[in-house]
Specification:
Blueprint: H1 13-25, H2 35-49, H3 58-83, H4 89-101, E1 103-106, E2 109-112, H5 119-123
Antiparallel strand pairs: 1-2
Helix pairs in contact: 2-3, 3-4
Length: 149
Amino acid sequence: MPVQAGAALSLTRRGFTIRLASLIAAGVAHPALGQDELQSFRALSARLTGFSEAGIDPELALHMMDGLRAAGLGDALESLLADGLPGNDELARQIAVAWYSGFHPDATGTSLRAYYDALVWRALDYTRPPGQCSAAPGDWSEPPAGAAQ
């Protein structure tokens, strides 16, 4: 239905939420941060972990940033991102540990967000996370690829 000039728009909370959710799902908007901030966080995470920025998952980075904010670390995070270098050693350590372990701070204390995708499994490329199935039955009985025979 076309809207006439000067007519008031009636937008319900439900309609607003649906429209906002569709923008977020389309990647057009995120309720708490801009793309520059996400890029800065990914760059910082790459420096802290030793992995390339391309290896830092953007979706996981969003969840981690939201969790840090929910845990009350938003101001410290903003400061750390603004400085570009780890000045807050404790927060920098927490971020590095979160990427390697898959656990990050959140409003409830700690949240497991990435088990199979935790960086520890990429660093230990000769093994897999416990519980992750392999491609071949009995491959556990063979030495890892690249191991000395």
